[in-house]
User: Which sequence fits this backbone?
């Protein structure tokens, strides 16, 4: 009977690969059309891969922990001609079937030791040899190349072709070289410096960076290529806390800031603009992201046209996207396209910080923990305790200046201190 491939689908506009998390089938299993057979992790979420037709699984060509490119064959299903015609599936031709029959099967199915997985030693370390370290780094891949080494000596940025070849071999980026002290002329990193460092870290306890962690690293490296500046100011929290206390549905604190930022940006959208060549582009819609902490990274679901709805109308959507992000199963409607993000690091007890905008955005608003601080009152002529939280805006300084952000934050503060307007 004809063989129908199970292909790694295109799981997002900018996604080129995914890592196999769980195999939900094995050879010999009978499957239905549209049955979920693999669970995979991209740099955005955990998703399911389904079959295109019903039939019997004849082989599986991937292993858990393996990273697979979009369009690659993950397994084969033997299906009847009637089922293929009914489902519209595309079977392999004779040449492809012969090639698939000769393909080697994975040796580490279900062990978590797929491509690039590190094998722990008895002492808990993952690398026993320089070669094993090299293989693991190479499997992890090199993302976000091009971040300059932050050194100030003239000529110290130069890297010889020999070092670059070793970096390509190991999957190392220039950002990783910040850990190495150069002993060459002008502070340059020599090949001996490079190899000494690689031998120094060989055998350290380690773990393979997950797709989520690698995505965050790549994003932050690309963000740092721009001149990012930050500005902060305190916000009186009593109006928000009182409003929330009396609200029957108790909106999330972060939602107040999302809505306030959206209203302020609707008045001054150029603060979230983009510089492309000699042009500064102004956003057409006020789509705001919400940073949600997940295992080994952060997900940023995006709420659309936030300025066009009241906060009460946004409560259900906000709760929905946060829950989806925490489970790492975001609907496509909430992925990408934001113009700014709100991140509430105050939930971790942090009072201040320097949030970094996504590469696709030029503005992020951070929210610190609520504190009681003494504030002078002219009315009673003494210090009184006031609940405050600090908001921090990090922005692309090519697009806006401190004055623009200062005025934006004044408007944000105004809305937050008058929550009935939200």
Assistant:
């Amino acid at each position: 009977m004809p063989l129908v491939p199970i292909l790694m689908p295109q799981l997002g506009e900018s996604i080129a690969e995914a890592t196999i998390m769980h195999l939900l089938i094995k050879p010999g299993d009978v499957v239905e059309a549209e049955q979920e057979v693999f669970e995979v992790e991209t740099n955005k979420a955990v998703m399911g891969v389904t079959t295109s037709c019903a039939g019997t699984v004849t082989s599986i060509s991937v292993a858990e922990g393996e990273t697979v490119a979009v369009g690659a064959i993950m397994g084969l299903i033997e299906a009847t001609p009637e089922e293929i015609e009914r489902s519209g599936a595309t079977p392999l031709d004779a040449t492809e079937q012969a090639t698939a029959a000769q393909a080697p099967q994975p040796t580490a199915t279900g062990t978590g030791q797929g491509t690039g997985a590190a094998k722990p030693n008895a002492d808990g370390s993952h690398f026993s040899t320089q070669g094993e370290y090299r293989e693991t780094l190479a499997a992890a891949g090199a993302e976000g190349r091009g971040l300059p080494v932050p050194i100030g000596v003239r000529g110290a940025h130069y890297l010889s072709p020999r070092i670059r070849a070793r970096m390509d071999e190991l999957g190392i980026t220039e950002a990783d070289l910040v850990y190495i002290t150069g002993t060459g002329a002008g502070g340059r990193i020599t090949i001996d410096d490079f190899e000494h460092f690689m031998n120094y870290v060989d055998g350290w306890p380690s773990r393979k960076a997950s797709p989520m962690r690698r995505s965050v690293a790549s994003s932050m490296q690309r963000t740092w290529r721009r001149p990012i500046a930050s500005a902060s100011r305190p916000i009186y929290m009593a109006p928000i806390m009182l409003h929330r206390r009396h609200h029957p549905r108790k909106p999330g604190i972060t939602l107040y800031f999302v809505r306030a930022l959206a209203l302020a940006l609707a008045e001054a959208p150029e603060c979230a603009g983009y510089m492309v060549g000699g042009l500064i582009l102004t956003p057409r819609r006020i789509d705001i992201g919400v940073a949600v902490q997940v295992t080994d990274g952060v997900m940023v679901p995006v709420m659309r046209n936030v300025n066009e709805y009241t906060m009460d109308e946004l409560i259900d959507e906000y709760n929905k996207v946060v829950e989806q992000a925490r489970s790492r199963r975001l609907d496509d409607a909430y992925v990408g396209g934001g113009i700014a993000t709100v991140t509430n690091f105050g939930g971790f007890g942090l009072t201040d910080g320097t949030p970094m905008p996504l590469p696709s955005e030029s503005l992020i608003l951070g929210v610190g923990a609520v504190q009681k601080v003494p504030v002078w009152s002219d009315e009673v002529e003494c210090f009184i305790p006031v609940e405050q939280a600090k908001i921090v805006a990090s922005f692309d300084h090519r697009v806006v200046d401190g004055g623009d952000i200062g005025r934006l934050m004044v408007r944000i503060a105004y809305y937050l201190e008058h929550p009935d307007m939200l």
